[in-house]
Amino acid sequence: MQIKSAEFVVSNQDVAKCPNNNLPEYAFIGRSNVGKSSLINMLTNRKSLAKTSGKPGKTQLINHFIINKNWYLVDLPGYGYARVSKSEKKVFQKFITSYFEKRKQLVSAFVLVDIRHKPQPIDTQFMEWLGENMIPFSIIFTKADKLKPKAIENYINDYKEIMLETWEEMPNYFITSSSKHIGKDELLNYIETINNDLNANA
Ligand code: GTP
Ligand code: MG
Question: Ligand nearest 142 Cα, by number?
Answer without folding.
Answer: 1
